[in-house]
Structures are given as C-alpha cells and as structure tokens.
Design brief:
With about 400 residues, the protein is of the alpha/beta class. It contains 13 helices and 15 strands. It has a single domain, classed as 3-Layer(aba) Sandwich (Alkaline Phosphatase, subunit A), CATH 3.40.720.10.
Length: about 400
C-alpha cells in the first residue's frame, strides 16, 4: 500500500484561507472523477457506522452535493453524454453492447461517441488552452484510432478502451480470447491485456501487472499533476473502474473497512470504494503540493446507479440497467475553495441535472465557452444546460420547468 496522504480536511481548510476573489483567478484547473457503478448510498458519509470514503466525504460535504443528478442506466451512453453534452437518444447510443435497437445486432466495439461531435476537452482547449489528460475507463469507442482519447482532445491517456477488465491486478480482457476467430492472449488465463496508453497500443505486462488498478491510476494521476505547468489550466478526466465488476478488492482493505459490514459481498464493495478514495486523497495532496488546489474545481459523478448484486442504492428503487431512480439518479458533487462561496459549502443543490449538463456547466459557466463553441455545429446541443450559477445559488435551475418538487 502507498504511504497515506496528510488528512484531507487540513488541506481543504488551508485551501479555503485567504483566497483571492474569483474574478482575479485564471481559468480553473478541473478534475472530474467518474466513479463506475457507485450506488446512491455507497459513500460513507451516508452512514453513521462506516468510514470507508473519508476523502470523498470531505469533498462532498465541503462542497455542493448535487442531489438530483441523473445519468443513463449503463456506462457508455453516460460517458458519451458527459463528453458531448447530448443525451444518449440524440447520439443513437442506447446500450453498451449487443444491440443498439431491438431489431439490429451491433458489434460492441463499434459503439461509441460519433466523430460528428467534439468532446469536452476539445472545447476546453479551444476556449482557454487547457491541457487535458484521461485516466481510467474510456468506453467511448475504439474501432478506429480516431475514436480514442488522444485523437479527441486529450494529450495523454492511460487506461482501457472497453467496458471493463477481467482482473483488477492483471488488467486483462476476454474480448480477443472469446471472440469468433479470436486467439489467446499473453495475460492471465490466456486473456488479452486491456491496458492501453496514448499511442493506442496495448501495454506489455511489466511492473503494471500486479498493481491494483485504482493505485495504478492514482500513481499516474499524481505524476501527471506533478509534471504539469500550474500556469496552464489542467483538465483531468479520472475515470476509476471501482466499484464495477469483477468484484475484487485488496484483502487489507477488506479487513480494514469491512468490519462493520455483515454482508461478505458488501465488504468487498466497501473496500473497492475505499481503494478509490485513497487515490482521491493522493490527487488532492498532489494538487496542493503543486500550488494548484486553490484554483481547482473537483467534481464527482457516477456513470449510473449501482448493480443490485453488490451496491446499495437505498432509498432509490432499482439499480443499474433499469430506469428506476436506483439506476439513473446518481451520486454527484462539486467542490472548490475559490469558486464556491462559503455560504454554499455543505449545501445541496436540488436542481434537475444530467451528465450531459457538465459540458455546458464546466466549459460554459466556469470557463466561458460560447454557445457556438459548445454546440460545435452538430445537432441537439440544447440538451446541455449550464448549472453553475444555480449551483452557487445565484440563479434558478435551468431545467426548473421540469422539476416537480423533487428533493
């Protein structure tokens, strides 16, 4: 295990002291953390007896919790919505694999965000010269290199292109082995290595093999921050795999955080969240050490609700793959010591928000992109709404006409 970072509460308190006025600050550094299959009730600040996500808890309760935030029912279409600002139906992107519509078989590798649309890092780069890095799960298409991260606005990428890996330590995938005409790979059990870098090529099994996935991504995130020029705005899309299948976590994390949990299955879930949370703490510490934390926005969302076999969506009905609230109403928050006034910290924003709205909220409300830059000449742009002023309590929710007293 890595050396633990200083208490996040001390770093956040220091960041909040003696801040310049927001108008005097340059374009903010933006770190968006995407959790995978995180249930509505899976972070520990919801529980009195558990404390497995202290870093995420501090950010959530010290920022603004987005209590009415929604996604799609599964991963890929949600990630497309975040990046393009369009709803899944607008993209013809209805599922992860198998079928796009009931009467049409589609190769899952060909599913992805259409090249007719720009992605969020491309907009940020054009508006304010952001340097963008993607780490973790992509799942936005890889049938051609043009669909992969470094051809769509990201300077670098470390992660995997498809829906999931077969093993959190070996970073392998079953696609090549099980596909018709496929052949065995070189990884665990003859599987193909799924880990890829910004060249578009699979990485060989080396020191990366045997490193738990969230630690691998946390290591790379910290290095990226340490090597970044703080005078240039940074956008980091940090898309952890946790708590997606396979249901795996380090034994020491299970032993440490699962003591107050009766279900053996949920002990692993808690440990998965804890290992992701530890890396979030390291990222915040790296931002602080680089002098970037004071001018950073840290946001979090899950790509969909938690699976019913191992997540906790209480009190929402249903889970991943379904359209009840347990599947589409997700955990989300935003934190900043410089952009969120003291009076709003610790509050909830009840405005109806969708993953598609992050594009206009971050690139528009925060950075100043115009409607033309956000719309990129493609159709259906009106479905991304800027919530920044509403989150700050300075304006009504831009989707207020759709809200029916939902709390």
């Amino acid at each position: 295990m890595r050396t633990r970072t200083p208490a996040l509460a001390l770093l956040l308190a220091a960041a909040a002291a003696a801040l310049p006025a927001p108008s005097a600050l340059p374009a903010p550094h933006i770190i968006h953390i995407m959790g995978d299959d995180v249930g509505w009730n899976d972070l520990s600040y919801h529980h009195k007896s558990l404390s497995h996500s202290p870093n995420l808890d501090k950010l959530a309760t010290g920022g603004v919790r987005l209590s009415n935030h929604h996604a799609f029912k599964v991963c890929g279409p949600s990630r497309s919505a975040f990046h393009t600002g369009r709803l899944p139906w607008q993209m013809g992107y209805y599922d992860n694999s198998g079928t796009a519509v009931p009467w049409l078989d589609v190769d899952s590798n060909r599913m992805g965000a259409s090249l007719d649309f720009t992605l969020l890092p491309q907009v940020l780069g054009a508006v304010a010269n952001y340097t963008s890095h993607a780490i973790g799960k992509w799942h936005l298409g890889h049938v051609t290199r043009a669909h992969t991260p470094t051809y769509r606005g990201y300077k670098s990428f470390l992660g995997y292109y498809d829906a999931m890996t077969e093993d959190y330590w070996a970073h392998t995938h079953s696609t090549g082995h099980n596909a018709p005409g496929g052949c065995p790979g070189t990884g665990l059990g003859g599987l193909w290595n799924a880990l890829s870098n910004n060249s578009g090529a699979a990485l060989g099994h080396s020191l990366d093999n045997g490193t738990y996935e969230s630690t691998l991504f946390g290591d790379h995130a910290v290095r990226t921050i340490e090597q970044h020029d703080p005078t240039t705005p940074l956008f980091m899309y940090l898309a952890f795999h946790n708590e997606h299948d396979p249901h795996q976590a380090p034994k020491d994390a299970i032993d440490k955080y699962g003591g107050g949990v009766k279900s053996d299955t949920y002990k692993v879930t808690v440990a998965q969240i804890a290992t992701m949370d530890e890396q979030v703490g390291r990222v915040v510490a790296a931002l602080n050490a680089s002098g970037m934390l004071d001018n950073s926005i840290i946001s979090f969302s899950s790509d969909n609700g938690g699976p019913l076999d191992h997540a906790n969506n209480f009190p929402r009905r249903g889970g991943k793959h379904g359209f009840y609230e347990g599947g589409i109403r997700t955990e989300a928050f935003v934190w900043s010591s410089s952009r969120i006034p003291q009076a709003r910290r610790g509050e909830k924003y009840h405005g109806l928000m969708h993953l598609a709205d992050w594009r206009s909220t971050l690139a528009g409300g925060l950075v100043g992109a115009s409607a033309a830059q956000l719309n990129d000449g493609a159709p259906f742009a009106a479905e991304s709404h800027d919530h920044w002023a509403a989150i700050l309590g300075e304006a009504p929710c831009p989707r207020s006409e759709l809200i029916h007293n939902v709390q």
